[in-house]
Each structure stands twice: as C-alpha cells, then as structure tokens.
Amino acid sequence: MNTTLTAVPGLRVGHAHDLEQGLTGCTVILCPPDTVGGVDQRGGAPGTRETDVLHPLRTVQHVNALFLAGGSAYGLSVADGMMRYLEEQGLGFPVGPFVVPIVPGAILFDLFLGDGTRRPDAAMGYAACQNATTDAVPQGSVGAGAGATVGKFAGPMLATKSGLGSASLTLPNGLVVAALFAVNALGDVLAEDGRILAGTRRATDEKQFADSLELLKQAVPAQAGNTVIGVVASNARLTKAETNKVAQMAHAGLARAVRPAFTPWMATPSLRFPPARFQRMWVW
User: Fold this and answer.
1) Coil/strand/helix, residue 120
2) What does each of the 284 residues of the chain score in pLDDT, given as a tens digit?
3) Are residues 43 and 227 in contact, defined by beta-carbon separation less than 8 angstroms?
4) Three-state DSSP class for 25?
5) pTM
6) All domains of the chain, ordered by start, with CATH?
C-alpha cells in the first residue's frame, strides 16, 4: 500500500542526486492538470522560486510542477531543466503560440556535506522529471534529502544525517492528505511522544543527544546551515486562498516535529570540512 505523497491521485514524484561527490540532489513533483497551489514561508533565510505566483491575488491559477533541491540558491537552477521537460510535453501557462511552465520550488543548504562546488542543476532537474512515477516515493538520503542533516547547534561534526520522508492519510470518504519533506533542521527532530529521534549529539558521547532546547537555554551560539522544506498535497478541491491556508496550517505540524522551528539563523562558512571526514564521523 502506498502511504507516500503519490497516494494523491495524479501526482508523480522523481528524484535525481549525486551520491558520490556532491552529496546533494533534487526532488520534483509533477502535477496533474488544474492543480491549485499555495505557499507559506516562516524561516529567516528562504531560498525560493516563483512562490509569489501562488498567492491568491496573482493571475496564474495553476501549477505544473514543484521542486525541492539542495545546493542552496544554486539549486534553484533545477527549474530550468524542469521547464524544458514540461515545454516538450506542451505543459504550461498558454501565451500565444507558447507555453510557460509554472514551476515553484524551494532549496535547502547542504553545501558543507560533500563537494560544495557540485550542485543540483538544470540537467538534474530534467533527469528528475524523467524519473518521476506514481510509485511509492523512495525515502532517505535521496533527492533533495541527499545532503540533509539535523542537529547543527554544535557544528557539523556533532550533527546527525537526515534525509527526505513522506507519508499520507486516506479517510473513509476517499479524502487523501499527504506530505513530503526534506529535513535539514538546525535543531532536533521529535517523535510524537516528544523523544528526540535525531539531533545534536553530545561531544562526550555521540550516541546521546544534547537536546537543542537546553543548548538554547545556555545561549550556545548556533552554528547553522539549515532549512526544512516540503510539500503538502490533497485530492480535496480547494480555492487558491484555501490552499494557502492549508500551507499555513501545515507549519503547526512542522513546529511540533522540529525544535526549534522558524529560526533566523543562516550558514556559517567556517564550518566546511572535507567530505571524507564527514563520511567517517556522521551517523547515516
């Protein structure tokens, strides 16, 4: 049984990544016709493309595809490859003899994990579109989650490898609600009972978590390179305003699962280390 984002009828999801050198990648969501999109952004250092068109007052009503990518702002270029793919399929906003594919997306910061000069690009975006299927979404260190990590309060050597995950819920009346997130948080990821599933590890015992909330109370300077990005989808028929409200509501769930959430912190360049050191020290 498919319990991932593609449980929503019509959605196709594809990954492309570099797991050898760049340790980064992208994930695309190809949408069925007449898909309505919305957006809500809370973090202090967003990297986005065409999210303004998702607001209710904007002219364009439908989206053709969405993407999540690593590579910081460089990763926004995956949309170029996606637009080429969609144009070849004749999909996009009609403008005279042309179509203009509507492809909003967001990136996360993963430059410190692998070779930071190798980033998701247009070719990777095109490949992800070619890989897109209605099958259950592969999860883990794949696609946009290839370079994701969590628990970076004490620097990258005490962080924990994370990735990309997806889940869905189907109600008896046929309503499907699903989510797909690439989790690259500054702090900890929590279980439903409040336990820390992944986060900043203790320097004295790397099998134990330090608890980012306690580090906040101690005014430990945050050493960050973080973003949590994702997609919530449903087969419900919603207006543009209603879709934006759902995106806003979804942040309540993010705040329950990630601590702290919606921070203003940005990346600190001095944290970069060679890839071999990461592969030896990080928990995968």
Assistant:
1) coil
2) 899 999 999 999 999 999 999 999 999 999 999 999 999 998 888 899 999 999 999 999 999 999 999 999 999 999 999 999 999 999 999 999 999 999 999 999 999 899 999 999 999 999 999 999 999 999 999 999 999 999 988 888 889 999 999 999 999 999 999 999 999 999 999 999 999 999 999 988 888 999 988 888 887 777 667 889 999 999 999 999 999 999 999 999 999 999 988 887 654 433 333 333 333 333 33
3) yes
4) strand
5) 0.91
6) 5-271 (3.60.70.12)
Burial label for 213, CB within 10 Å (0-12, 13-18, 19+), is middle
Who contacts 122 (Cβ-Cβ below 8 Å, separation ≥6)? 77, 78, 79, 80, 81, 84
User: Are the beta carbons of 225 and 152 closer than 8 angstroms?
Assistant: yes
For 213, phi then psi, to 5°, come to -65, -40
Residue 224: strand pairing partners = 267
Using DSSP's 3-state secondary structure scheme, residue 15 falls into: strand
Using N-to-C axis directions, what is the helix angle for 122-131 and 78-88, rounded to 10°?
Answer: 50
Residue type, 150: V
* C-alpha–C-alpha distance, residues 224 and 150, integer Å: 10
Q: Do 196 and 226 contact (CB within 8 A), yes or no? A: no
Q: How far is CA 64 from CA 54, 148, 185, in A?
A: 12, 26, 28
Return all residues near 121 (Cβ < 8 A) that are at least 6 apart: 74, 77, 78, 80, 81
Encoded tokens for 12: 């196709």
10 Å CB burial of residue 231 (0-12, 13-18, 19+) is: buried
